[in-house]
Write a structure and sequence with these properties.
mainly alpha; four-stranded antiparallel sheet; flat; zinc-finger; SWIM zinc finger family protein; zinc; Znf_SWIM; metal-binding
Length: 550
């Protein structure tokens, strides 16, 4: 078989797929390592290494590919490389030049002449040598972007980075992060922030074209955000207005970019990081207005949901609260009353101040505003309960704690029990059990109540209906109902084995037998094992697992 007649000897399907790979430029790093000995990498689901050995006339005398294809024919990757070799020979003449060998034979002056010519005529060579020869201390934002994008471009295929290529795509990112780690915070604080912002922005772009199942891209973003937070927290020297302004200007476009992309929490994290500076100087007005500008931006206003804007408003509120001007805080509450987080902050402030009637009024108002949001509605009721608790309003506390207990909240069941008079408890208990019995959400509380109230017959009846529950409820029943526990536990194990069809399932059933042995004793377990051996004499895997029970 020769490079000229591949199509004749290779099965049509393989040849077509090899041709597709060749035409899509999946053949990379084609080199002639020695005369007529070729090597290349072929991109696919994975990268595969291919070697082709030829004679002078192009006859294929040997080939190798790291893919799992097994056949006497060339695989599609080998076909693609052969086509690439054929094109290379066509473009460069039939007699391939051993470039490396000839370069090694040249004198230094001749090599320098060739190198100078390349630098002048090939911008990519000039760029490569600039990065290769530059001192690492010269890394700037532009260079960091090039390093990151170089590995991304190498790993991407048709604008997408497959899961297996994510590590390759991130090689440039880790190189930049390693460089950042080597910087001295005392002398390079601003450079650390600038380069970390580049990593965050570039990784955000990578997220949109990659499978990040491994979490590598997100980890790089998180690491960079933490580096910025740490740098701002430990900023060297005193903070002055000029420094604060410079960093705010630096962060602004990156925050807007994160808001626009809306696939990470970078925007909020960056704002929170810079707000630390308000503890080292009075920058409240500056930072407050800065956040206001971010909220007014098109990037924020174009967002479908306003929870990010609500979070930014909370940043403003916290700064006002720290100033201690209550009249300003109250005006803020009124102005941004539509945000649940603002209303909650106002309510909590009133609760801490012991203004319980105000808390109840605010909660009832918010319950009406957020009636369709179950989670928020629940929060408002809990705050209202706290106000009733502060006022000692027993009747209202009983109503709410009963409602919470119906939802399975044990804390409020305990409160309910302590609030209700002894003579009224039986009636309240029956109502509670009737409601929680058939609710999956409140089932754990239902069982706890049965145990607390020593209603063992009902607990036993529950185990008869759900035999698997005997595994954790038997300690409460064994003393009074040993025979029934034995019967239910045995039924549970028999059902497991009836459904089992492989060794793993038999092993699981035998683990339950070991628990049965601990609960009811070695004698009961031995009897059960003998019954099972008698019932299933042909299930060899089961018999083997039963034999392992000591």
């Amino acid at each position: 078989m020769n490079l000229k007649n591949l199509k004749t000897y290779v099965p049509a399907k393989l040849y077509k797929r090899g041709l597709d790979y060749f035409e899509q430029n999946f053949v990379e790093q084609l080199t002639e390592d020695a005369p007529n000995r070729w090597h290349a990498r072929v991109a696919g689901t994975w990268d595969y290494e291919v070697s082709i050995n030829l004679t002078k006339d192009g006859t294929i005398v040997g080939s190798y590919c790291t893919c799992p294809f097994e056949s006497d024919s060339l695989c599609k990757h080998e076909v693609a490389v052969c086509l690439a070799i054929r094109e290379h020979k066509k473009e460069n003449g039939s007699s391939a030049v051993d470039v490396l060998t000839q370069l090694k034979a040249l004198k230094k002056a001749e090599l320098l002449e060739i190198l100078e010519e390349l630098v002048e005529k090939q911008p990519s060579v000039h760029l490569y040598l600039t990065e290769k020869l530059s001192d690492s201390s010269d890394m700037n934002e532009e260079k960091a972007r090039r390093i990151i994008r170089k590995s991304v471009n190498r790993a991407s295929r048709s604008g997408f980075i497959e899961w297996g290529r994510t590590d390759q795509a991130l090689e440039g990112v880790w190189e930049v992060l390693e460089y950042i780690d080597g910087l001295n915070l005392q002398h390079d604080a601003e450079r650390i922030i600038r380069l970390s912002l580049i990593v965050i922005e570039e990784c955000t772009g990578i997220l949109q074209m990659a499978d990040d199942s491994s979490g590598g891209i997100s980890s790089a973003i998180d690491e960079s955000l933490e580096k910025i937070d740490e740098t701002l927290a430990k900023w060297p020297g005193e903070l002055d207005e000029a420094t604060v302004d410079r960093i705010l200007v630096l962060l602004y476009p990156h925050i807007l970019f994160a808001l626009e992309q809306d696939i990470t929490e970078a925007a909020s994290y960056l704002v929170e990081a810079v707000l630390q500076w308000n503890e080292r100087g009075d920058f409240t007005e500056k930072l407050y207005n800065y956040i206001a500008d971010l909220i007014a931006s098109d990037e924020m206003q174009n967002k479908t949901y306003d929870y990010t804007e609500e979070r930014f408003r909370m940043y403003q509120l916290v700064m006002l609260q720290q100033q201690g001007k209550q009249e300003v805080v109250e005006a803020f509450y009124v102005k941004f009353h539509r945000y649940p987080a603002i209303r909650k902050s106002q309510t909590l402030q009133a609760l801490v101040a012991g203004e319980f009637e105000k808390v109840i009024r605010l909660c009832e108002e918010s319950e009406g505003l957020d009636a369709n949001l179950a989670g928020l509605l629940h929060d408002w009721k809990k705050l209202r309960f706290a106000a009733y608790e502060g006022m000692g309003s027993t009747a209202e506390m009983i109503d709410l704690s009963f409602e919470f207990a119906l939802e399975g909240e044990e804390e409020y069941y305990v409160k309910l029990r302590s609030l209700v008079d002894a003579e009224q408890w039986p009636e309240k208990l029956e109502a509670l059990l009737a409601e929680t019995k058939n609710s999956p959400r409140s089932l754990p509380l239902y069982l706890k109540i049965l145990i607390d109230e020593n209603r063992l017959e009902e607990l036993l009846d529950y185990c008869r209906k759900d035999v698997s529950a005997i595994g954790h409820l038997y300690p409460h029943l064994l003393a009074d109902y040993p025979h029934e526990v034995n019967e239910i536990y045995t039924t549970y194990i028999y059902r497991l084995i009836e459904r089992a069809s492989n060794r793993k399932a038999y092993w699981t059933a035998c683990q339950r037998i070991k628990a049965f042995q601990q609960a009811l004793g070695a004698g009961a377990a031995a009897g059960l094992i003998e019954e099972l051996k008698f019932m299933y004499p042909k299930r060899k895997a089961l018999l083997d697992e039963l034999g392992k029970i000591e």
